[in-house]
Amino acid sequence: MADPASGMMAGTGPPVLELDGIGVWLSGREVLRDVRFGIGPGEVVGLIGANGAGKTTIIRVVLGLLSPTSGRVLIAGRPRPRRNRSVGYVPQKISLDPEMPLRSRDLVALGLDGHRLGVPLPSRRRRELVDEMLRAVGATHFADARVGSLSGGEQQRVMIAHALISRPKLLLLDEPLANLDLRSEQEVVDLVARIAKDQGLAVLISAHDLNPLLPVVDRVVYVANGHVASGTTDEVVTSSVLTELYGHHVDVIRLHGRILVAASPGLSAERGELEDSIDGATAV
Amino acid sequence: MGGFWSHVVEPGFFQSQTVQVALLVGGVVAAISGVVGVFAVLRGQSFAGHAFGDISAAGGAGAFLLNISPLFGFLGMSLVAAGCMEAIGVRRVRGRDVATGVVLGAGLGTSALFLYFNTTLHSTSGAAISVLFGSLFAISTSTVPAVVASATGALAVVLLLYRPLLLSSVGDDIAASRGVAVRVTGAVFLMAMAATVALAAITIGAILSTALLVGPAATALRMTRRPSTAAVTAAVIGAAATWLGCLLAYDSYYWPPVDHGWPVSFCIVAVILISYLVVEAARSHRFRNASVRDGSEIRAAGVTPHLGAASDGGHDALGTSRTD
Predict the structure, then answer these.
(1) Rounded to whole angstroms, how far apart are CA atoms A190 and A184?
(2) ipTM surpassing 0.95, yes or no?
């Protein structure tokens, strides 16, 4: 496979995150094979693939929630410590009942010291940090609302504030755009890009559709069949690279600044999983 | 004035040692049940909490049979049940009800056996009523220090785990990624809950212990948006309901059927239920008024979460762009 993964660092500084030949087997099945890519400071990388392609598995490996069968995860050039709070994480969805008594500011504060034992004592510094973070993500006007009662886009903002308040070097967002309307989608993407540039944060953002991320991603990591191809959008999202990745002929069509990925006729009927992948990667 | 109060608070009420023990033990256990209950409801473990009450009854019945202190029976059985549930897999959302159900079934079966032996071998037929429905007025003075100490221990554990518990009720992955030992936290909380429910079972009976665990917590969760306030509110509601229940039970001696007081457990549960209904009614009244003024309040109340989120897209976008 044409592997644009090596020599991937577009930015200067050392990579904040580096995946070095990650392989994962889950219940006797190979889910990921030889996954390698890196993210530099201030870079936004899109992790693109269909549902079930392995995006969440990659994120869980980086978070240390899942041990890879082979390969290494390096954070700032060092093997990932078992408990590491230098990685911020925004999950795909949070299971919060609208009735749950947890305000936006409570959830953000938990990002600061949620792992600590004991009841938090009121602290002016803590309060100021929380207010500052809520302001940074534009969540001030729903700071005192129950998190469960907020819309999807508002919850994403609060979760981003929760993830960033401990000043991580790396931010992982798992399908943050799923279930958002178009406008919230755009706002979340812009917010993430702005924070990445302002704070020199490395961002890995997973999505099944690349198009909403196109204006902000520096590079993409495309996942299919447990393999990845990584590089700039122009390097990776091409007919030849994706055809090799999927193992079937794939057409890539660029239209009005959007990218449509489609299987050749006849192939999708042959392999259901291919059809899924194609659906997922196609802009609607 | 004095005449009215002497009708409400029977002269000698506070002097009676039985009442003093009941107020002390009942108040402490109810307050701590309230705090633990808030987390049980948040974590979706109310069913497990209820099961501990029923299962601890087997321990209580066993203690009657062996003629040992019921405290050790209730507490021991409940903790063993918590261990079994943890081993079967109560921490997984999908396995939760199964694990609880399996252990609950076994516990109730054992309970039936022990109560049967109590009735047939010892002819202590009062055991069943006392184990299942309890009586705050029948607690022996000698067990008071042990009950208060174990309840305080359970409270200390829950307060220690306050933040990790909140964080993992948002999501286990989020908590784990922040360095919380999710499995250990869950297991320790389960033990603390088992102990609390066992103590509640001694206090107002195995079957009614759920009322102390879930009732005040459910009421508190409707009254506040802050987790800490919810815990304190639940503790206050629990203790107040228990004290008021004691008072009513004492007064009920003069109610029909005359000269036969009503069970104190019933009085406590009735107060808890009424407080919940009052808060619920006040809340729906407030939201009906508020929703006329401001449509967004409807969404805050969770009445139409999905519709609200969709139709509020404009409001969301306006609000967020304002801050940029």
Answers:
(1) 10
(2) no
